[in-house]
Amino acid sequence: MVKKYVLVSGGVISGIGKGIIASSTGLLLKTMGLKVTSIKIDPYLNIDAGTLSPLDHGEVFVLNDGGEVDLDLGNYERYLDVTLTRANNITTGKIYRDVIERERKGDYLGKTVQVVPHITDAIQDWVERVATIPVDDTGEEPDVCIVELGGTVGDIESAPFVEAMRQFQFRVGHDNFALIHVSLVPTIGSVGEQKTKPTQASIRDLRGLGLTPDCRCEKTGLDEGIRAKISMFCHVQPSQVLAVRDCSSVYHVPELLKDQGMVDYLWKRLNIEETIIITPALKERGADMWKRWNQLTTNQERLHDSDAVTIALVGKYTHLQDSYASVVKALEHATLALHKKLVIQWIEASDLEPESRPVNPVKYHNAWR
């Protein structure tokens, strides 16, 4: 069975929104009738996210099989309506543990175990294996696997994974592998001048490592001159440079990408028409999914302050709100279903303690109010 892979990488800064771009890309392909799965690569040495502080990493998302994983897998499940497993989250720790266990058992027949080829092969084998696991109620193998590479291109930690993906593009073939690179075009000074140099440097690093983006996603609105400049210096067509401006909600990102031709481009780039059979039932199901998604975003835009409902959320890690991503999403979905606008009042739990009253009475009284 032909399998398509879309790799999403990021440059310039971390936390640029790769997870939302990966989720949105998967959603768009699913609305066209394709079966989609996702993998998140985290270059840290931890085996999983279970021991990571929410202040350091954001929410630990718990899957149905008990896997404690990166919060981006929560985004994938919410956007794609799929059920993932702990195997859908790859970490450096997991890869090295597996390779060392194989070495101890003698699987490498006395060879010197190295990053290349043993670690890079293990990464590729893991991706190929997990990409075949059914994740939706069809019970069938996915057609497309979205792979998000965590961190920033150029990090020491991610180097083995970048090399593995460089090799992987040849393993699966040009028509089955596409790369989306998410970058930042900062706006400098009072005149609002957009600067492309950080993005140029990021693409130069990526191409130097053997990967060339098929599509560029900029985290800001782009002037036409800036789009042309990025196209020229980053070796892509102007139509492949997509601007993702800040939105009132992340649920608008799929619409932004679709309006700029993301689906049409990937359809041709991955030769989906010629290589994947999409049944009429799946096409109809995808069309219905897109219709419901549009209804969700439209209803959200029509909400006014008079429709607001205020929820007080007490927590230990409130200064990093990603620590409670699933709680916030659950509240968002509940208020959208009731046609209400969500307003969250974040309350630090320690501010409610009697001990905080003499130290900071204003915070204490505000928290209780």
State the share of residues found in helices, binned by percent.
Answer: 40-55%
Total helices: the number is 15
Question: Segments where pLDDT lies below 50 for 5+ residues?
Answer: none
The major pleated sheet works out as: 7 strands, parallel
Strand order of the largest sheet: 5-2-6-1-7-10-11
Q: Count all strands and give the number.
A: 13
Quote the distance from N terminus to C terminus. 60 Å
Elements, N to C (H/E): EHEHEEHEHHEHEEEHEHEHHHHEHEHH
Protein structure class? alpha/beta
Shape: globular
Mean pLDDT: 90
Beta-strand content bin: 15-25%
Q: From the alpha carbons, calculate the radius of gyration and give it in angstroms.
A: 22 Å
Question: What's the arrangement of secondary structure elements?
Answer:
Blueprint: E1 4-10, H1 18-31, E2 36-42, H2 54-57, E3 60-62, E4 68-70, H3 72-80, E5 89-91, H4 92-105, H5 115-130, E6 144-149, H6 159-172, E7 177-183, E8 187-188, E9 193-194, H7 197-208, E10 215-218, H8 224-234, E11 241-243, H9 253-259, H10 262-269, H11 272-275, H12 280-301, E12 308-315, H13 325-337, E13 341-348, H14 356-359, H15 361-368
Parallel strand pairs: 1-6, 1-7, 2-5, 2-6, 7-10, 10-11, 12-13
Antiparallel strand pairs: 3-4, 8-9
